[in-house]
């Protein structure tokens, strides 16, 4: 959910199939143009290279991670040619210390200098950032690139890129290290897990170490009062449902303490009043919120002051509650014409500056009985054919659908979320709506009458599944962080595609589908600068629902980025 008012600076669609609580008409009009299909030879080549990548991931990386955790580098030594050295090739980022939860950057440089050093010595230096015992060090290694030196010679040498992350403690203080490095491999065979001398050379692309005097968070779940054993856990269910509920925060009783509303497909709705002591007390029934005995058909809620009396009212699924200002609510669903239908997200803001909060409703599937939607969509430049909806608040709980006249439907995209921002400095709320299958939409407000569609990304910038707005560089302008899919496998495959078989513009769009999340800096004139993903803001995985917030109270916004859709097993996220 987002809020802004005037004065504020080819694949199936799993969500629609798995969660739609209404009867819809599915239409299949998907066609793959012949010039967009890979030849059999291309597909075979990509599959053969990717198979070798799987062999490395399954037989080599577990041994190397175990060695890094324990400090026993015998597996690394076996795989490495005795003449192999490590050299820097690009920027080495300075060590960042989070001292007492205050971010500081020192002038110290990490362990790789202008002179090359043996690989074993470099690994020892990396491991020295952590306590020596294995339970104080956890590592992961990702295969980012695997490219045969000669395209059609898979029995020959390869160029590769690996990304290693190590997390643990040093003197009981948390430390994280991340490094990306390029490798020259003499060959990659089926028995590479036991082969010797196949790593020929290593070049460090980037490296950073982050440490803190103490953990930035403490697990408070059991003591919080927010626990409910009835909430849905897809790992324990036969039927997978991607959208199972959400968490919504406000101070509903205006006592100065934040309160929490949680909706869930199995557990229903619960309201928790904040005590100000880091704990919460369930107040659902006391506050007048009805808990149905039947599970909700969908899960989506929203806090907003729709009647303009200074306290937040509540939409939850197909019910609307008025906040009475005394810590209780009154259901007024029958008093409103607000269409409370299945949706994916809400964004609230006063788009026409009349002093009343309006509602933008995001859709990823059909939301009315009999409505048509595509059963299959092209995975680029497409959508479901279902528009988002802008509802103008006319007062007294009455709303008017102004989507058509304002041109804010989003071109039939599949939209998980949207945010209101002031993109061009004219103080009229603009709208940024994401698209899961195509280009995102920046809609520039024309003084509350209509919106003009624009772009934030010069290449494509679509395939998005979440967005957050905030001024990350403190220049007074609202920036955007957009959650996209980052895939190591996707990057490996695309790096081996013969790009001459595609028009360059088309391949540039295809390439966007695996590059990960993006940070856009607002220039103040309705245009945005794409910030280079040299930092780790892009490498989130299958990203959803990010948010800006000030983690360490230093006055600079940080990013919390979630990831994962349907992982292979618990604890091992996709991406």
Question: Would you kindly provide a written description of the structure presented here, covering whatever features stand out?
Answer:
- The chain starts with a strand and ends in a 12-residue tail after the last strand.
- It has 575 residues and is an alpha+beta fold.
- Helices cover 13% and strands 33% of the residues.
- The chain is globular.
- 35% of the residues are buried.
- It is built from eight helices and 35 strands.
Largest sheet: 8 strands, mixed
Unreliable stretches covering 5 or more consecutive residues: 7-19, 91-113
Number of strands: 35
What percent of residues are in strands? 25-35%
Helix content: 10-25%
Structural class: alpha+beta
Cα distance, first to last residue?
A: 25 Å
Average pLDDT value? 86
Shape: globular
Number of helices: 8
Q: What Rg, in angstroms, do the CA atoms define? A: 26 Å
Q: What is this structure's SSE topology?
A:
Layout: E1 2-4, E2 11-12, H1 14-19, E3 25-27, H2 40-70, H3 74-79, E4 85-88, E5 96-99, E6 102-105, E7 117-118, H4 119-127, E8 137-148, E9 158-170, E10 173-185, E11 199-212, H5 221-224, E12 245-250, E13 259-264, E14 268-274, E15 280-282, E16 301-304, E17 313-316, E18 319-323, E19 329-331, E20 345-349, E21 358-362, E22 372-374, E23 376-377, E24 389-395, E25 398-401, H6 403-406, E26 418-421, E27 430-433, E28 441-446, E29 450-454, E30 464-470, E31 479-484, H7 488-495, H8 504-512, E32 518-522, E33 528-530, E34 543-549, E35 558-563
């Amino acid at each position: 959910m987002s809020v802004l008012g005037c004065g504020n600076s080819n694949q199936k669609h799993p969500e629609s199939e798995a969660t739609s609580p209404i009867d819809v008409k599915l239409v299949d009009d998907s066609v793959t143009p012949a010039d967009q299909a890979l030849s059999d030879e291309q597909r075979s080549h990509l599959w053969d290279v990717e198979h070798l990548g799987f062999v490395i991931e399954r037989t080599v990386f577990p041994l190397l991670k175990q060695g890094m955790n324990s400090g026993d580098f015998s597996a690394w030594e076996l795989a490495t040619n005795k003449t192999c050295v490590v050299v820097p090739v690009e920027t080495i980022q300075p060590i960042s210390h989070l001292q007492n939860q205050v971010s500081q950057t020192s002038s110290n440089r990490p362990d790789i200098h202008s002179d090359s050093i043996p690989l074993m010595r470099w690994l020892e230096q990396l491991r020295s950032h952590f306590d020596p015992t294995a339970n104080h060090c956890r590592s992961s290694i990702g295969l980012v690139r695997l490219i045969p030196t000669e395209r059609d010679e898979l029995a020959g040498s390869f160029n590769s890129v690996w990304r290693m992350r190590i997390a643990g403690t040093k003197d009981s203080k948390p430390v994280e290290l991340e490094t990306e490095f390029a490798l020259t491999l003499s060959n990659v065979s089926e028995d590479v897990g036991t082969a010797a001398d196949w790593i020929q050379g290593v070049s460090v692309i980037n490296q950073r170490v982050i440490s803190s005097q103490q953990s930035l968070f403490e697990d408070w779940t059991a003591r919080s009062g927010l626990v409910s054993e009835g909430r849905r856990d897809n790992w324990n269910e036969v039927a997978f449902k991607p959208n199972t509920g959400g968490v919504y925060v406000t101070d509903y009783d205006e006592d100065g303490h934040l309160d929490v509303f949680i909706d869930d497909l199995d557990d229903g709705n619960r309201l928790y009043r904040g005590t100000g002591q880091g704990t919460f007390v369930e107040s659902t029934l006391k506050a007048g919120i009805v808990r149905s005995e039947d599970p909700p058909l969908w899960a989506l809620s929203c806090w907003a002051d729709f009647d303009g009396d200074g306290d937040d009212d509540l939409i939850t699924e197909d019910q609307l509650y008025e906040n009475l200002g005394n810590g209780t609510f009154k259901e007024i669903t029958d008093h409103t014409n607000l269409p409370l239908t299945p949706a994916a997200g809400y964004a609230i803001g006063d788009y026409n500056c009349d002093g009343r909060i309006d509602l933008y409703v995001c859709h990823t599937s059909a939301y009315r009985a009999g409505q048509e939607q595509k059963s299959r969509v092209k995975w680029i430049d497409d959508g479901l054919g279902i528009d988002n909806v802008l509802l103008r608040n006319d007062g007294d709980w009455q709303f008017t659908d102004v989507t058509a006249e304002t041109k804010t439907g989003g071109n039939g995209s599949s939209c998980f979320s949207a945010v209101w921002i002031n993109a061009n400095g004219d103080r009229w709320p603009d709208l940024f709506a994401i698209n899961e299958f195509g280009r995102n939409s920046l809609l520039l407000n024309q003084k509350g009458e209509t919106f003009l569609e624009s772009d934030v990304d010069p290449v494509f910038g679509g395939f998005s599944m979440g967005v957050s707005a905030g001024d990350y560089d403190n220049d007074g302008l609202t920036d955007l962080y957009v959650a996209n899919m980052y895939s190591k496998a996707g990057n490996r495959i695309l790096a081996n595609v013969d790009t001459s078989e595609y028009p360059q513009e088309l391949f540039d769009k295809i390439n966007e589908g695996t590059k990960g999340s993006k940070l856009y800096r607002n220039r103040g004139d309705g245009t945005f600068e794409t910030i280079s993903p040299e930092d780790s803001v892009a490498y989130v995985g299958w990203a959803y629902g990010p948010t800006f917030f000030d983690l360490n109270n230093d006055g600079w916004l940080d990013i919390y980025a979630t990831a994962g859709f349907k992982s292979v097993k618990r604890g091992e996220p996709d991406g």
